Amino acid sequence: MKGVLAVSIIVAGLATPLAATRVAADVFDTRPDLRFCMAAMLRGFGNGLEERACAKLYDLPSAYHFTCARGVVRGFRSDSDRAACASFFEQQASAAKAAHVRPQTP
After folding, report:
1. What residue ranges do the domains of the chain occupy?
2. Please, what is the end-to-end C-alpha distance for the chain in angstroms?
């Protein structure tokens, strides 16, 4: 009887992480619009309407963060692209410094 109980506990313990992983994967399976928005955020949106819709629905950051970071790593096409990227991140840094900090709740 103790052996059966031990095996049951081990099986239940192994099944829980697998079930949790499956549930996490289902978020993108059940929400193709979220999957589209996340992929577009990383690769760049096809147009501004898609970017605005995804930002409104899911509060995603601008894809320009990733475009600018790619330029930093791979190089910029022009001096104006580099200046725009630097200006963008300077504005983001200023906004972060001025942002409200929510108090921690116990």
Report:
1. 29-95
2. 43
